[in-house]
Amino acid sequence: MLITNIKGLVGVHPKEKLLLRGQELADLPVLENAWILLEDGLIKDFGTMDSLSETIKSQYATHDKHSAEGRYVFPSWCDSHTHIVFAAPREEEFALKIAGKSYEEIAAAGGGILNSARKLQDASEDELFESASARLRDMIRQGTGAVEIKSGYGLSVASELKMLRVILRLKQAFPIPIKATLLAAHAYPQAYKNDHAGYIRLITEELLPAVAKENLADYMDVFCEQGFFSISETDELLSAAAQYGLKPKIHANQLSVSGGVQIGVQHHAVSVDHLEETDGSVLACLSSSDTIATLLPSCSFYLGIPFANARGLVNANAIVALATDYNPGSTPSGNMNFVVSLGCIKLKLQPQEAINACTLNGAAAMELSHEIGSIAIGKRANLFITRPMPSLAFLPYSFGQTQVETVILNGEIYHG
Ligand SMILES: N=CN[C@@H](CCC(=O)O)C(=O)O
Ligand SMILES: [Zn+2]
What we know:
The longest helix has 18 residues, at about 195-215. The protein folds into two domains: about 1-75 and about 375-415, Urease, subunit C, domain 1, CATH 2.30.40; about 80-365, Metal-dependent hydrolases (TIM Barrel, Alpha-Beta Barrel), CATH 3.20.20. Helix 7 (about 195-215) packs parallel to helix 8. It is an alpha/beta fold. It contains 16 helices and 16 strands. The strands form two sheets. Strands 1, 2, 3, 4, 5, 14, 15 and 16 form an eight-stranded mixed beta sheet that branches. It is globular, with a radius of gyration of 21 Å. The chain binds N-(iminomethyl)-L-glutamic acid and zinc ion. This is Imidazolonepropionase. Pfam families: Amidohydro_1.
């Protein structure tokens, strides 16, 4: 496929650039008046219109040639933090939240993660696959071209395995890269409410070996938070996961400064996610670390909790990514366009920074930036063409409306 007359080809980073640290986040190379050639599912070449040879033009039949006049071409959004396998939404908690109940109060009253775990227990693998597929199709239509998906609503060996098998089926059925994360340490199930050591033993002695045997997960996540998993419990779980080759991705500092960032960095976590609550020690810890700070502004928006200190992290030379956190409790939205807008409006990132955080750094947070997240020759041809837009900044500026007009996955238009 040949796309010509592109107003701006966004994110033409050098191929060897695999992540953007600190102030580099503002570097978003855009090629104006450009063309791009996609072949065999990959980006074959690109350049400015004056460099497009007659030979290339004549090779492409009309149906394989698209003019993107007035439009921008972006690399697909890379959403590195989601929980899209769940049995049912939780609108009943929405009303409670509006009436003033906090996330912690709802969880303590038997809502929250345990509510989703109860609902998931009775759902079949097929039902979960169908509903997660519908969510994923919606996300793809909104421009997402790579995604990480967590378990964590099973909270028993059988149900966690059921969730991970659903994620495996999604990997096989969808034309985008998908990473799977074991999040059994999401909450203590009712039966282990007073036996934390017993649940940790269940995870380390039964679940992890079973997950490894079927090769069902790429990462291990822990909700390290007051009332959920403590620092020493997180430490024990991450050490056990490492023995099975699972690297950490931590839910850290969502509700309090929990020490989750430090324990994650100590275990060489790929990312520490949330960080709505930060202090100087968190910034210092991430400033020289390869662990990515993944911020989830849609969660702050929905729960009414603080927005992460994105500027502080960028100024401290940390690596900042943005993701949706799509889940039924704290973020019932998988729209990365809204994340880019919130990244600008609430996290005070410039449009170039927010776009990089949702593409190349999002890919890095899934260890996929060698393959996706920017426009470079040889990378996977997952991208989208916008509607006509006056400028790049129009995308985050026009929040709540999608500017994504055509989605291309592996070099082909997505009609799903
Ligand atoms: N905080 C932990 N996990 C999810 C919320 C899960 C839920 O409420 O169902 C999150 O990332 O926000
Ligand atoms: Zn989450």
